[in-house]
Automatic annotation (TrEMBL):
It comes from the Eukaryota. This is Prolyl 4-hydroxylase alpha subunit.
């Protein structure tokens, strides 16, 4: 009973602290992780909090009644989001643990136990690369901790095993010997020692292990395509000078008399396929209305599996969506009309407007907006081919969050009030395979968009 009271008190304190941190948490993935550790309830809440943040203390307050201790699943989601950010934006583990992102201090420091927890979760995901990084960091931090937050032998055990999985048996053995210096009777260490020594003796050591079918997030396991995608997200890749030289900016009225007075400001981002950026196409008050209308209806985005036709939550698309109709508000109808004016395409076949919010770590892996060949539904008469896509940005994003086209080497950076527009199909009606695109993970801040396909 006493123990229970202690838990509740500790938790209440954590909760208070977490609420104060909300603003800071919006700024930093590390704070997001700490926040999840402090007040998660269930997976849905983690998704709301860390993955697609809710931006306000009122939202956090709503969670109060259901508070429970963070589950393994919650912490796991947080660790995966952090690993994604770490890889994509080449974030250094020690700096992250110091609460720094790209040289700017924006979060509290992690304890050795926090680092240990991140390592343990990575290990559970068979992500031995990040497990090793975080366990090494935990060990470093532990040396400096007066009140030690975790047992060194536990760190060393995970560290030895991930090191072994990454192929360095010699180091795994050294680490295991260190455990035995601390606890000479450590049972698992004694068994592993013999095992590692055997491996070394049979010179079987060079082979990295660990193909157990689980998620591969380690840098070692990344394909060239993934590494290229991440470089694009970091803004390191550009189209050739020849291609850039052909791009123009212009005013356009699309032959529409109404637009003669206020033509659109259009910037070409690519010519074939045509990708255009429209500047200043949403007013601040429209953005405020649309965010407010969408907020109560947000649900974690789901992805259709064509094999089962079921809509699933998936790690390759992490964001919240809500759908709005023209009748919901004049501002929605105005935006729908604007899409028609911008594109010259009728909105009759369009889906409702999808409002999307990505929080820290939120992203959408490279994909097409039209049904691809392998998808039997592509030939279903109910499944429309999406001719074009319009994407309005309703926020700037402090760091990360670009829309990138991996086959075209271009990155479009979100800017409040602008919109990107592209055709997904060739004029023949066939899908244009160069239109593959993705939403890079948000590193700091929050990304808001309206997504409309027609
Ligand atoms: O948010 C983005 O940058 C792209 C989103 C997207 O491609 C989609 O929702 O289909
Ligand atoms: Fe898309």
């Amino acid at each position: 009973m006493l123990l229970l009271r202690k838990y509740v008190e500790a938790y209440t304190d954590q909760y208070k602290k977490a609420s104060e941190d909300v603003q800071a948490y919006v700024e930093s993935p590390i704070n997001a992780y700490l926040l999840v550790k402090r007040l998660t309830t269930d997976l849905q809440v983690v998704q709301d909090l860390i993955i697609t943040n809710t931006e306000s203390i009122a939202d956090i307050d709503k969670l109060k009644p259901g508070l429970k201790f963070p589950s393994d699943e919650d912490l796991n989601g947080a660790a995966m989001a952090l690993a994604r950010l770490q890889d994509t934006y080449k974030l250094d583990t020690s700096s992250l643990a110091n609460g720094e992102i790209n040289g700017v201090k924006c979060a509290a420091e992690l304890t050795a136990a926090d680092c240990f927890e991140l390592g343990r979760q990575s290990y559970t995901n068979a992500d031995h690369y990040h497990a090793q990084l975080w366990m090494m960091e935990a060990d470093e931090r532990l040396k400096r901790e007066v009140n030690q937050t975790v047992e060194r032998s536990e760190i060393l055990e995970y560290l030895a095993f991930s090191t072994y999985k990454l192929g360095d048996v010699g180091l795994a053995l050294d680490l295991t010997n260190k455990i035995l210096e601390l606890i000479p009777t450590h049972e698992r260490a004694l068994i592993n020692k013999v095992y590692y020594e055997d491996e070394i003796a049979t010179r079987n050591a060079a082979q990295p292990k660990g193909e157990d079918g689980s998620i591969l997030t380690s840098v070692q396991n990344k394909t060239e395509d993934m590494l290229f995608y991440e470089a694009l997200c970091r803004g390191e890749i550009k189209p050739s000078d020849e291609i850039l030289a052909q791009l123009k900016c212009r005013y356009t009225d699309n032959g529409n008399p109404f637009l003669k007075i206020a033509p659109f400001k259009v910037e070409e981002a690519y010519l074939d396929p045509k990708i255009l950026i429209f500047h200043d196409v949403m007013a601040d008050n429209e953005i405020a209305t649309i965010k407010a209308l969408a907020r109560p209806h947000f649900k974690r985005a789901r992805v259709k599996r064509y094999t089962t036709d079921a809509l699933n939550i998936s790690n390759y698309r992490i964001s919240k969506s809500a759908w709005l109709k023209e009748i919901d508000h004049k501002h929605v109808a105005d935006v729908v009309q604007r899409v028609e004016d911008m594109t010259g395409l009728s909105m009759e076949t369009a889906e409702n407007l999808q409002v999307v919010n990505y929080g820290i770590g939120g992203h959408f892996w490279p994909h097409y907006d039209f049904a691809t060949k392998g998808d039997p539904k592509a030939f279903n008469r109910f499944e429309r081919k999406r001719i074009a896509t319009v994407l309005f940005y309703m926020s700037d994003v402090a760091q990360g969050g670009a829309t990138v086209f991996p086959y075209l080497n271009i990155a479009v950076w979100p800017k409040k009030g602008t919109a990107a527009f592209w055709y997904n199909l060739h004029s023949s009606g066939e899908g244009d395979l160069h239109t593959a695109h993705a939403a890079c993970p948000v590193l700091t801040g929050s990304k808001w968009g309206i997504y409309d396909t027609k």
